[in-house]
Amino acid sequence: YLVGVGRADCTGPVAQVPLMGYANFDQVGGGLLSRLYSRAFIVADPEGSARLVFVSADIGMVSQRVRLEVLKQLRSKYGELYRQDNVILSGTHTHSGPGGYFQYTLLWITSKGLIRPALSSIVNGIVKSIDIAHENMKKGRIFINRGTVENSQINRSPFSYLENPESERKRYSSNTDKEMVVLKMVDEYGHELGLISWFAVHPVSMNNSNRLVNSDNVGYASYLFEQEKNKGMLPGEGSFVAAFASSNLGDVSPNTRGPFCANTGESCDNPHSTCPVGGAAMCMAEGPGNDMFESTRIIGQNIYLKAKELYEKASQEVTGPLSSAHQWVNMSDVSVQLNATHTVKTCKPALGHSFAAGTTDGVGAFNFTQGSVEGDPFWDQIRDQLLGEPSNETKDCHKPKPILFSTGEMTWPHPWHPDIVDVQIAAIGSLAILAVPGEFTTMSGRRLREAVKSEFDSHGARGMNVVIAGLCNVYTHYITTYEEYQVQRYEAASTIYGPHTLSAYIQLYRGLAKAIALNATQELPRGPEPPLFNVTKVTLLPALGAENAPAAKTFGDVLEEVRQEYREGEVAAVTFVGANPRNSAENATEHNFLTVERYSNISSSWRVVLNDASWDTRFYWSKGSRGQSNVTIEWHIPAGTEPGVYRLRYFGHYKKRVFLLTTVTIPFEGSSSAFQIT
């Protein structure tokens, strides 16, 4: 194959923008723990014209809006080279990245609007990572390996899982998929290029109290792998690219201690995830660490170490033709042939009452509980007044789900949920990547993989490795099995196309697999093209106005100085007169907010040893009154830090009023005093 890899920043604004994932209105960005990246991998046939692109981006999910804008840019740059059928865009599902990149109303509301700087950062970052991979294409080889990851996940809806037939459950040793699949890419001389790992776990080690933008546990795994391979480079630099991509993570949590009542400390591992005092709002799962930062590192490190072992031992080469199959499907109207006599249908999208309960990784508001198969007259009445009552047809179609939001019947100002959904498979020789538009649960993913594998087998493509790439192309929430759907925990309440959603996807992906196996992808109907809405520019983000420094101070001045001396394990911290970090995101595509610098006696100069992409640094922004704000930079000094003289620097932009209504953006910087690490 010809192989190319690329990585580009897609962080976007780190302040005031709602973080995407927990749908918690209070959880808005207030700084940066680690940068977000798009990682692109291109594989092409050196003889023919076939090529595939796989992108894993450190974002909550790929939205239809992001995908359509990326494809549009690729078309204008490369013509018909990169298209909807051979480009897969997957989100890692971090819950600590900026939102605001959605056109469907439900997600538009929870993001406080369509936030252009956030959307542009993601779209441009993805395109740039593909550009870099495109420019770096070289002859190469791909190897595959798989193995088991321990102590890194639990099933967060075990009572739903137990609804699946016992005969089916008996075939598996665990209620989560512990298998990791790793692809290793090298050039023709054996020089290492990159890796893709697929493993099913929610990146929710950072909980919904977090305000710092970061890529969570899988992002930390990428960071460790890239730091190791790009020796001597700053984080985010260097040619080796390591993507830790999402898979069928629907019911899989990294919070391995399980759910406890926050007020009493007793377990709340029960069918409704409720506590005797305080109800469902008190039931929260805990990670393995002492705090969320440590839990993120522990889970990320586990994943990284397994990937490293599988990568080093990978010897099975992937060979064979490249192909891709894609269709757009109206998921609210699919007829599924269950057997010779029985046909069922999918439904217009709707969310159940337990959607509002959230999960033990991030509980909802108003004390909704998981596993509600009856509506609540109080909330139903409020909904009927505000949003209108669901039609009888939709109610019947979704049974036993009690509908909270009949999103498929809500169209103001735009539809609340997608009807047109992408289904897509890309095959690299004996590897088939199923790009799925949402979060399949453990058993849903197993059924889908098995069905596709047997479809390949029956058409002569035997022994395919089938992996699921999650959160691709458009977001459609969750996909549970029919049996899990009956008990209506969060994942089932969020299976928006009704009880037969999984059966519909299995039918559709079988069709794609058959087309690939028979070399008939050209004959697949394209399906109805998804809409691109003209979404309003109005957002609930505060406007960026002129800013001020306190009296007798200027931007970048130190308000609280570092100590003169630290040891490893301590935290060096400095607070500056700051400015809104959104100014920087809107002015520079790649802005670095901070550096840690070490003084070199040999060259008598300061050398940058860390930047804001480092997981050891934290950048906090806090807004004061009268246009003033502070920035605090922390460096959590790790074991093994070289003793010496260091300083912390801050780089920002502030808005200055020049006329009555116009402002200009002015860059500034600040530095702490020098301090010693002993």
UniProtKB/TrEMBL annotation:
Domain Neutral/alkaline non-lysosomal ceramidase N-terminal, first and last residues per copy: 1-507
Cofactor(s), by name: Zn(2+)
Pfam family, one: Ceramidse_alk_C
Binding-site positions, Zn(2+): H93, H202, E439, Y478
GO terms for cellular component: cytoplasm; extracellular region; plasma membrane
GO term, biological process aspect, one: long-chain fatty acid biosynthetic process
Signal peptide: none
Catalytic reactions of this protein: an N-acylsphing-4-enine + H2O = sphing-4-enine + a fatty acid
List of catalytic residues: S253 (nucleophile)
Protein name as annotated: Neutral ceramidase
